[in-house]
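Allow me, if you will, to draw on your knowledge of protein folds for a short while. I have a record of one protein: its chain in single-letter code and its fold written as discrete structure tokens. The full record is reproduced below for your convenience:
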Amino acid sequence: MKKLFSVLFSASVLTLSACNKQPAQTENTAPAKDKTESVRTIKLVSTGSDTDVWKYVATLPETKEAGIKLEVTNLTDYVVLNTSVASGEQDVNAFQSFNYLAAYNASNNAKVAAVATTYLEPMGLYANKAKTVDEFPQGATIAIPNDTANEARALTLLQSAKLIKLKPDFDPVKGTVNDIVENPKNLKLKPIQMTTAVRVKNDVDAIVLGNTLALEGGLNVLKDSIFREPVDQSTKLYVNLLGVAEANKNDPIYTKLGELYHLPKVQKFVSEKFGGTKVEVNKPVSEFTDIK
């Protein structure tokens, strides 16, 4: 699967490193710290099992060498994950994709800016009985995320599975169920809060889940989903990022933090913990400025 991901992703758009692949470099590639610079505390918020990655980063000698003391907090409210950073209560967050960030910024005056890329993980469709999308009965109920960006992403996934058809000018960031123009199986799409998604999985015929939440529920998108997003140019806007208050986007300390995520030992940790479902993306955020 790792090799397949590498083939699918065009190098002109994203250069992804397979989760288990070790770059040809030594472990001493952490961002160098100016000897005259004191250690700076950075408060990072994340959610679910992603928090474990950053707690691991916090323990590394390379983090200290970069002049960073990392304090990691787990939050489950996706809105607070952004508002706490925008307000300065927290310094940086690690939980969202570029399309989610774009939707948040479009609805809020206090903006959050991307400072580094981390990974891409496919969103998947999980069913209780159906083994393929063709097996869904007429009127089947499918739960989808109720937040703007992930609702649009879920609808795009269902269109890719040929379950629905969206209007030609569908907005992949702000689109809603009102943009469905064809629904041949008369599927009932039920928007729900994603933090409760795994608990209601057995109450519906199927559910669309982001990979982090799926993993929390013991599901692996590569093994358990009946349909999932491709990893190619079409999923560029779903790459995950580190976000900070817009006023802090040029602070070099956050560039250093992003570099720490891409250390070989961190990628080994991610690969082992998440079963190859988080594909590393190490590209400049300037390549994603067209996502609005």
